[in-house]
Each structure stands twice: as C-alpha cells, then as structure tokens.
Write a structure and sequence with these properties.
- This is UxaA family hydrolase.
- The protein has a single domain, classed as Archaeosine Trna-guanine Transglycosylase, Chain: A, domain 4.
- It has no helices and ten strands.
- The chain is mainly beta and 108 residues long.
- 0% of the residues lie in helices and 35% in strands.
- The two termini are 25 Å apart.
C-alpha cells in the first residue's frame, strides 16, 4: 500500500494554493475544492492539523469530487472522515479520480 508523500518542509504553507481538502489523517481520498486537470500537480490540506500533501492528478477531477491519496488494490476498504465509506472496484493509483466507476458504497 503506497501513500502520497507529504510535504514536510511546507506543512504550514499558505493554503491559498490548495486544490483539495482531506478531512482526517489516514483518509484515502481528498475532496476537490477546485477543478483539477490531468497531469496537474495539486496540493491538499489536512483539515485536522493543516499539514499538506502534493500529488499529480492522473485525470480531470471536478469540484466536489475525490482524488486518491493512496494506492489500493481491488476490493479494499476506502476511508474518509476517519471511517470506511466504501470499497474499491478496481486497483487505484495515487492521483486517480475517484467516483462511481472505481468505488462502491459501504452502506449496501
């Protein structure tokens, strides 16, 4: 399981340039606060401590949608808000666009 590399030297950088938010440390996805383009290097901010992470978006990610912060295999649990929200339906790479094509809900 690979995890996006967190920026240690810039943990408390200005959040004005961020493109996504992560609710809790350990979450597998971030939520886009701006549209992201494929190939774009984007910064996310952890809401629980203000630290940052930088990833390259592998696809276009619309505002309000999710980006993968961790590499996962098919049928692995997905965490957001510190709780499991679903299961992967295929392998994920860091920076993948996460939506109904590659995640299913944990509710049913």
């Amino acid at each position: 399981m690979n995890v996006a590399t967190k920026s240690n030297s810039e943990d408390r950088q200005s959040t004005a340039a961020h493109k996504f938010l992560i609710h809790n440390k350990g979450d597998h996805v971030g939520v886009a606060t701006s549209d992201m383009k494929a190939g774009e290097r984007v910064v996310g901010v952890y809401m629980d401590d203000g630290s940052t992470v930088e990833v390259v978006s592998k696809g276009d990610v619309p505002l309000g949608h999710k980006i993968a912060l961790i590499q996962l295999e098919e049928n692995e649990p997905v965490f957001k808000y510190g709780i499991q929200i679903g299961l992967t339906t295929c392998k994920w790479e860091i920076g993948d666009y996460v939506h109904t094509h590659n995640i299913k809900t944990a509710r049913w």
